[in-house]
Design a protein that fits this description.
33% of the residues lie in helices and 21% in strands. It is α/β, with parallel strands linked by helices. It folds into 2 domains: 66 residues, Sun protein, domain 3 (Alpha-Beta Plaits, 2-Layer Sandwich); 194 residues, Vaccinia Virus protein VP39 (Rossmann fold, 3-Layer(aba) Sandwich). A hairpin with a 6-residue loop joins strand 2 and strand 3. Helix 4 packs across helix 5. Bound molecules: S-adenosylmethionine (SAM). S-adenosylmethionine (SAM) binds next to helix 5 and strand 6.
Length: 341
Amino acid sequence: VALDKFSEQKPRYVRVNTLKIDTENAIRELRQEYEVQKDDMVPDLLILPPGADLHKHPLVTNGSIFLQGKASSMAAVALGPKPGWEVIDACSAPGNKTLHLASLMKGKGKIIACELNEERVKRLKYNVKLAGATSILCVSSCPPPICIRKIPDKLKILLDEIMRISPMRSKPSICVLLYVEVKHGDFLKLDPNDPSYSKVRAILLDPSCSGSGTAFERLDHLLPSHSAGHSDHADVRRLQKLAGFQKKVLEHALSFPAVERIVYSTCSIHQIENEDVVSSVMHLASSHGFQLATSFPQWPRRGLPAFDGSEHLLRTDLTTDKEGFFIALFVRKGVQKPKDY
Ligand code: SAM
């Protein structure tokens, strides 16, 4: 009962998918039913009253808005990708952050969305399509970040149709403005020195974690089967195993040669998955020229004082923010912070 009350008080957050709808238009539509405010830190994130049930709202079912919490929406903003960049989302399903990146990149650039689990890849592909982020094509003479050299037959028909109905004299060129490539596989198996990743400038790493900062996981701990079946020992072993994996994937992300910015995030409240993982890679990070940077400097809740520099880290709190989340931002020295973030 206490937890029900707890989640009832939590405002509902929705993130506007600006690839499909303008934020002001989304607000106008939602205001027909709800009070709506803009979040003061995350652009295009809206706050609705606790209890607002939007699951069947047409803006949700057609992919114009996504139900995404504030803390989780801070990760892509902290990464700060620019339109035209190439970015890897290393552990991406169901794709909340992948699609947020696509919005922040204003539909221009390339996102490699990697996911190991086959079932979750299906969900990811569905969401990418729903968000209208599969590939955004531009027909004209635009400066293309990525060009299609071999135009598929269906596109040729489309081009012929455009020629027929438009006043264009010469054959129009076609380019892909945004390309989200869903990669079913293990991020650890992507070779950082493969030329396909030589232009990747940012990596978002949101790996599997204990989920101890989410309402679902907290409720799980109340189930009788949980207390009967789980010993503290098993919990500690599980956390250690997760932390080992998290360290491995973070080290892998740090080894991509052209990467300038990396966000490591979890929805865990445990130091072992958060500050301890970051602290364990600091030596390697600095040997690759990375240092920690402060994302959202105005945010008051920072990392636990586990090591020098942990004040750069960001935490959200179960009591105050109703959600436990963690963000670490690594920036390669000498690389300017993108404007606007
Ligand atoms: N970033 C996602 C979002 O915001 O929607 C949530 C990611 S979830 C916390 C972690 C994901 O990482 C899971 O879908 C899991 O299957 C995937 N995963 C775990 N190990 C992986 C690996 N080695 N390579 C790629 N994906 C992996």
